[in-house]
Amino acid sequence: MSTNPFFYGRTVSGSAFIDREEEITEITSSLKRGQSVILFSPRRYGKTSLIKQVFADLESNGLLVFYLDLYRITSLERFAAYYSQTVLSSLRSGADKIFSLVKALLPSLKPKLTYTEPNLPSIELELTLEALRKQSTLPEMFDFLEKYCNKKKLRGCVVFDEFQEISGFDVDRRLEREMRSAIQHHTSVSYAFLGSKMHLMRELFRDKNRPFYNFGKHVELGTIDAKHWIPFIKAGLKNTGSSFTSEECRRIIVLTGGHPYYTQMICSELWEQAVHCGAADVGDLIDGALQAVFARENHAFIEIWDALSPAERRLLCALAEKEDTALFATEFLQQYRLGAASSVQRVVERLSKKGIIDRTGKGYRIIDPVFTHWIMREDQPEL
Ligand SMILES: Nc1ncnc2c1ncn2[C@@H]1O[C@H](COP(=O)(O)OP(=O)(O)OP(=O)(O)O)[C@@H](O)[C@H]1O
Ligand SMILES: [Mg+2]
After folding, report:
1. Which residues line ligand 1 (CB under 6 A)?
2. What's the CATH number where 343 sits?
């Protein structure tokens, strides 16, 4: 029996990774020529998986690549320690050589060469709060890699995943300012900033008053088109004992809107059900897989729903039925008993900040397609 070919909840690569050729080419060529990139999308659209594909290409072209996931970083000291350790531990020279370089390039960080085991040297920097308060510390830390790459005639690339998390601890925006002013002069190192909290990413990179305004090329990742999903799903479900037509596969995409994580999740459920139920009706199998996904996500959705005000819930119900609509039109406000346009505006802002809705061409939409189905499910009480 073959194994389930659908994966969700971790980065995907190889045959589980589809599409994104254009984005990979665009991002890879930008980073190679020293152009920094800002890659953003809602959660679980595939940013990390995509950047890992880009990495493979950059590394095979001889670039030094460094990956940092800032999701759990909650203070400037931890950021500085994480950044410097990631950079120092990945350099390709011997420990003694790196140590001399670090001493020359980062003198105020008082580097120490320590051995955790006889043959395992590591360089420790003094990155206490006091040291970080000095004006020179952060620029020196960021400039180190540029100087190292210049000296070694190499190119480097640093990826900051979940970059918006710095907003949580960088309250005086010092890191934002000092990082921008240091790295804007770097010519041998390019940077990729990834983020999934759309409103925070927009504030960081699209607000004229913020240091990172106009920094780098913006790439907004969308969902994956049905034309890429259908052959992938069909091939993945081929050996389950049930046969799925293109139209049946398309129904899955209609349910998920091509959302990468949910499409893989539903298909994974479908694969399990098809294998265990034998030749059941394909329509029933798809319904069953959707119910299984609801059951899996129910707890998280209830938590989100419970924390919403009645006005927020009413707006979500309206958007679940009619996304991308002229939200503030009198007719729409009346049809869904949403109240005055000014109060709806405040509700929209709150839901955007919570990462539940996002702007579209004409209006707004609920970001999570399965949450949309969950809101519209038949047993939902009338509001
Ligand atoms: N190119 C792809 N082809 C197929 N499935 C994909 C692709 N990219 C992502 N996925 C699916 O989406 C899931 C989430 O991917 P990934 O972790 O890369 O997204 P992310 O945007 O970094 O998420 P987060 O915002 O949670 O960090 C994967 O586990 C996989 O199921
Ligand atoms: Mg990610």
Report:
1. 7-12, 16-20, 41, 43-49, 196, 260-261, 264
2. 1.10.10.10
